[in-house]
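Budget justification aside, the reviewers requested a transparent look at the raw inputs and outputs of the sequence design task funded under Objective 1. We therefore reproduce one unedited record. The lines immediately below are the structure tokens for a 295-residue chain.
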């Protein structure tokens, strides 16, 4: 009887050990899968989070007319603003359900990484370096780097900038281009567009490099200056950006942009916000992309 009791006890202990081992394996598998499920849930809920919040948060400029600026009534206006309002209308049913978060050029990536905004517009040029940090949707504009200078002392070639001061905005493609391709050109850098253009007016530099589309608009309002160098480097594209890995919102934006392109939304937005700033020498086709991916 004692021998049988020992056998039975041993069997019970063995079974208990087996159950515990299986439970541990199950917990391990569950724990390993949990981060993936959590990440998946987070990605899938990004649009729901916007809807629950009741507004879509969009990073825009406050001082880059005609793309994003504050008018005399304290309201955001411009080409990017028109797009942001349409996104709010199609996502939330009301164009007023957008919260404009004002940003500087060098902060356009950071506001996405820190979840301060859902989308960055802010005249954001697509580059390989930026694409490593954020996800860009389809483009809605094309642009190149230009150089503005006084009409009475025009800069017509990059070679003329050697030994001169070039005014630049921090965090722009112009800054990167000149650092890589013309390191001998002295850059004087500013945070805000208004500061940079005031510096050009005050003669603190011989020229100013920026997106040519912005320069065309600025010299029209400041006829003592000209864009004597209209294009440097390659043709680039401007597109909305979302936080890296936010595939749900990225896919929604791409579908939205393609739909808007079919109705020629961006040509209409050009006529509404940009045409009067550029004049007759620039056409919508020089600037606009109707929301389709570029090869």
């Amino acid at each position: 009887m004692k021998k049988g009791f020992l056998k039975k006890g041993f069997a019970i202990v063995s079974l208990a050990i087996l159950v515990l081992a299986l439970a541990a394996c199950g917990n391990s598998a569950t724990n390993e899968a949990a981060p993936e499920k959590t990440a998946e849930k987070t990605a899938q809920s990004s649009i729901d989070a916007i809807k629950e919040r009741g507004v879509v948060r969009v990073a825009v400029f406050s001082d880059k007319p005609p793309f994003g600026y504050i008018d005399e009534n304290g309201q955001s206006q411009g080409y990017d603003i028109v797009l942001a309002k349409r996104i709010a209308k199609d996502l939330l049913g009301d164009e007023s359900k957008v919260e404009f978060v004002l940003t500087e050029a060098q902060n356009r990536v950071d506001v996405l990484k820190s979840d301060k905004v859902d989308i960055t517009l802010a005249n954001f040029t697509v580059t390989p370096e930026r694409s490593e940090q954020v996800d860009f949707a389809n483009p809605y504009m094309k642009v190149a780097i230009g150089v503005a200078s006084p009409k009475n002392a025009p800069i017509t070639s990059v070679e003329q900038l050697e030994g001169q001061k070039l005014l630049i905005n921090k965090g722009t493609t112009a800054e990167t281009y000149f650092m890589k391709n013309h390191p001998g050109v002295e850059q004087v850098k500013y945070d805000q567009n208004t500061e940079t253009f005031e510096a050009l007016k005050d003669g603190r530099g011989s020229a100013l490099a920026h997106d040519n589309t912005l320069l065309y608009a600025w010299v029209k309002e400041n006829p003592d200056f000209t864009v004597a160098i209209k294009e440097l480097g390659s043709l680039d594209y401007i597109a909305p950006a979302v936080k890296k890995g936010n595939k749900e919102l990225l896919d929604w934006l791409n579908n939205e942009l393609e739909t808007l392109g079919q109705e020629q939304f961006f040509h209409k937005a050009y006529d509404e916000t940009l045409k009067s700033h550029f004049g007759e020498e620039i056409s919508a086709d020089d600037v606009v992309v109707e929301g389709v991916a570029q090869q």
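Residues 177 and 233 are 8 Å apart (CA to CA). Residues 1-43 have pLDDT under 50 and may be disordered. Computational costs for records of this kind are itemized in the attached budget.
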